[in-house]
Design goal:
The complex is a heterodimer of chains A (112) and B (113).
Chain A (H helix, E strand, L loop, with lengths): L3 E4 L2 E5 L4 E7 L6 E7 L6 E7 L4 E4 L2 E6 L4 E6 L8 E7 L8 E2 L3 E6 L1
Parallel strand pairs in A: 2-11
Antiparallel strand pairs in A: 1-3, 3-8, 4-5, 4-9, 6-7, 7-8, 9-10, 9-11
Chain B lengths: L3 E4 L2 E4 L5 E7 L5 E7 L5 E9 L2 E4 L6 E3 L9 E3 L8 E8 L8 E2 L3 E5 L1
Parallel strand pairs in B: 2-11
Antiparallel strand pairs in B: 1-3, 3-8, 4-5, 4-9, 5-6, 7-8, 9-10, 9-11
The chains are: A mainly beta (112), B mainly beta (113).
């Protein structure tokens, strides 16, 4: 089955700097790669996703890149703000949202 | 819309006890699922349902039962609680199988002693 590895487990950046979180997956059949943000005491919330037929997708300060050959995808957050502090999860699936396999999570801290 | 609601927010059980975690959504979503979240392990899929009357197992189904008698509700039953089931449980839903945006509930924190 699919296995998703996420790095780093914790990340601390200065406000205004960029943050990058990386994930690798094992199943070449996976075709859907979402990223979720989880704030303290809340459920995860989808922030951006990408399909395997696209190499990059941007939404304001957030972007995701996908390298199918190397089987890895990354989340890029530019001009970080204190409200970006949260735990971020990547996931992968070959069946849309049906059977998402999640990475271990990255705790991102934005230092003012 | 209330979105996805879960009850209770927190529960303490003794080993061997049974209980039901409730999940409801008011968005007329076909697809619903249950995940457990453990430190350092992300979220793992327990069971899912693609519509009323249809359920299937996820990655970690042992010790849990589900049913989907209505579109709105998707309860998760712990048959005989074990300390290994101490976790935070999240219910999620999406409009359909192919509509990937999943909406998560606020979670239920379960402690099994």
């Amino acid at each position: 089955g699919e296995n998703v590895e996420q790095h780093p487990s914790t990340l601390s950046v200065q406000e205004g700097d960029s943050a990058v979180i990386k994930c690798t997956y094992s199943d070449s059949a996976s075709n859907y790669f979402p990223w979720y943000k989880q704030e303290l005491g809340k459920g995860p919330q989808l922030i951006i996703d990408i399909r395997s037929n696209v190499g990059e997708k941007k939404d304001q300060r957030i972007a995701v890149t996908l390298n199918k050959t190397a089987k890895h995808f990354s989340l890029h957050i530019t001009e970080t703000q204190p409200e970006d502090s949260a735990v971020y999860f990547c996931a992968a699936s070959d069946q849309g949202a049906q059977k998402l396999v999640f990475g271990q999570g990255t705790r991102l801290t934005i230092n003012p | 819309n209330a979105g996805v609601t879960q009850t209770p927010k927190f529960q303490v059980l003794k080993t061997g006890q049974s209980m039901t975690l409730q999940c409801a959504q008011d968005m007329n979503h076909e697809y619903m699922s249950w995940y457990r979240q453990d430190p350092g392990m992300g979220l793992r899929l327990i069971h899912y349902s693609v519509g009323a009357g249809i359920t299937d197992q996820g990655e970690v189904p042992n010790g849990y039962n589900v049913s989907r008698s209505t579109t709105e509700d998707f309860p998760l039953r712990l048959l005989s609680a074990a300390p290994s089931q101490t976790s935070v449980y999240f219910c999620a839903s999406s409009y359909s199988i192919t509509q990937e945006t999943q909406y998560f509930g606020p979670g239920t924190r379960l402690l099994v002693l």
